[in-house]
Every structure is written in C-alpha cells, then in structure tokens.
Design goal:
With 142 residues, the chain is mainly alpha-helical. The protein is 54% helix and 6% strand. The protein is built from 7 helices and 3 strands, in the order ααβααββααα. Helix 2 packs antiparallel against helix 6.
Length: 142
C-alpha cells in the first residue's frame, strides 16, 4: 500500500487496484493523518546559508508560497533550516493516498465485503441446500 502506483510494473498496478486492502488502508491512513503537522528530526532538515544581508524568510518567501515545505527559522541570517513537508497529508499524496478519496475508499471496502458475504451464502446454498431432483430421490430411498 505504501508504494506509489507509478513506481510499480504494469501487472502489479492491476493487483494494487484489484485488492481491497489498498483501499481500506488508504481510507484509514488518509482519515487519521490528514492535516497532522510534521516535526522533522534534525537529520531530516535541509540546511543552507541565505545570501548576505537577507533573512531565511525573505529569501525563501516565493518558494514557501508554492511548496509544502516548512521554514523553521524565518528570521535567521546565518543558517536556514527547512523541513521538506508541513503536514502528513502531503507525504501521503506521494503514495496516491488522498483525503478527498476517503469515502470512496471506504465504500469500495464495504462493497467488497458485502459481495464476499453474498457470494459465500450463494455458494453454500448451491452446494448444501437440497434441490428438487435430489429431494425426490432421497424420499424414494426411505
């Protein structure tokens, strides 16, 4: 589930789409993690120096408006610390898990389970419930 479909071979993309587990996990993760802020560890930060006489916030203003990055020290003039993501939903988007698809994914999971139960009941009825010819045969034997 935590592999983006674009990085899978064609055959595995079919299996990724066909399994209900990917929809179930996607629905759970998108609902639980959407909008949750990310706190980067020190080794995950991107650090660099801004140009002379410029703060990190002014130097990265245009970039931060269009990206999902989080500048941790906007008033610093020596070293800028940037976390690549602000919230977990942007990371989930890399794997094709979107918050907007949570109800669709939940519906696919419910439909799959209902169809499985109905098919199991149909198979039981076809195999175990006596039919007309079998009933007559059983009555004539006894």
């Amino acid at each position: 589930v935590l592999v983006s479909p674009s990085s899978l071979p064609r055959f595995w993309i079919f299996l990724y789409r066909a399994t209900p587990l990917s929809y179930y996990i996607s629905a759970l993760m998108s609902t639980a993690l959407a909008g949750v802020p990310i706190t980067c560890a020190p080794n995950e930060l991107v650090t660099f120096s801004p140009p002379i006489n410029e703060t990190c916030g002014s130097y990265l203003a245009a970039y931060l408006d269009t990206s999902q990055a989080n500048l941790l020290n906007p008033s610093a003039r020596d070293v800028c610390n940037v976390c690549p993501y602000k919230e977990k939903s942007s990371v989930l988007g890399l794997y094709g898990i979107e918050f907007e698809h949570r109800w669709r994914n939940w519906g696919i999971t419910v439909a799959y389970n209902v169809i499985n139960v109905l098919l199991a009941m149909l198979l039981y009825w076809m195999v175990r419930v006596p039919k007309g010819a079998k009933m007559k045969m059983q009555k004539s034997v006894f």
